[in-house]
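ok so i was messing around last nite and threw this chain in just to see what happens. nothing serious, just curious
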Amino acid sequence: MKLKKTAQLWILTTVIIVAIVATSGLALAQAVAPSLGAADDFAVLGASTVTNTGPTVVTGDLGLYAGTSVTGFPPGSVIGVMHITDAVAQTAQTDVVTAYNALAIQPCGTNLTGSDLGGLTLTPGVYCFSTSAGLTGILTLDMQGDSNSVFVFKIGSALTTASNSSVMEINSGSDPACNVFWQVGTSATLGTYSTFIGSILAMESISINTGAALTGRALARTGAVTLDTNAIEISICAGTPPALGALQIFKFNDLNGNGVYELGLGESPLSGWEFTTTGTAGYSNISTTGTSGFISLPGLQPGDY
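result:
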C-alpha cells in the first residue's frame, strides 16, 4: 500500500511539474543560433521583388535574387550596399536556405500553438507554433544577462503582428536582436507602427507595413519583401563592424561643441575603418585607420557626404 501511494505521489508530482513548465513559458530545448553566412550583412533580402513606399531607411545591405526589380529607392534610402541579382545576393540566398533548415530541425522546447505572443515573458529557448503565430501587445524576451542567450521561434505557417505591437528585451547582455530568429513557414507581416526585433527567415514573403520598425533582418526565400516608411536596422553581433561598401552616407557632427566636425555613420562613431575623402571642402585623399571612432576634419561643415 505504501509503495502504491508513493508511486501515485510521484506521478502526481510529475504531472504538476509538467503543467508548470507548459504554462510558464520556459523552453526545455536549448536554442542554437545558425550561421547566416553571406546573409549576415543584409538587412533586407528578397527573392522575387523588393518594393518600397515612402522614406524608408534601411541600415545594412539590401539584396534581391533571383528577381530583378527593386523599386522605391528613392524615396527610400539604403545605408549599405544594394546587390541586385548578383553573385553576392545569390550566395546570401543560398545561405538563408541553410540557416532556415538549421532552425527548422531544432527540437521544440515549448509549444505555443493557439497562444498569442502578446503579454508573454519568455526566457531563451525554442518556441514552436504548429500553424500560425500572432502578436498583439508586447512580447518580452528575458535575455537573463547572458550575451549568448538565443531565442528561436519556429512557426508552421504565417507570422502576423498587430498594429502598435512590439517585441522588447530585458536583462540584455548584448544587442538583443543578434540571437533572436523567426523561422516562418509561409509569410510574415509586421503591423503598422509595430516594433520588432530579430532575424525573420520566411519561406515566402515579408510585408512590413506603414511605420513599422525592425531591428534585425527581413530575409525572404521565395517571395517579395514589401516596405512602407520603415526603419530597418541590421543587428551587429559579436562586435563585428558592418560591411559598409563603397557608397555610403556619412554625417559630420559637431559632437563636442568645439567647432570640430567629426565623422560617423549616421549619429554613431565608426572604428577600425579606413576613410578617404576626395575633393570635399578642399580636402583631397585624406586617409586614416585610427580606432578612436571619429575622424576630425576642422573647417568641414556638418552634413551628409
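not much to say yet. The longest strand covers residues 195-202.
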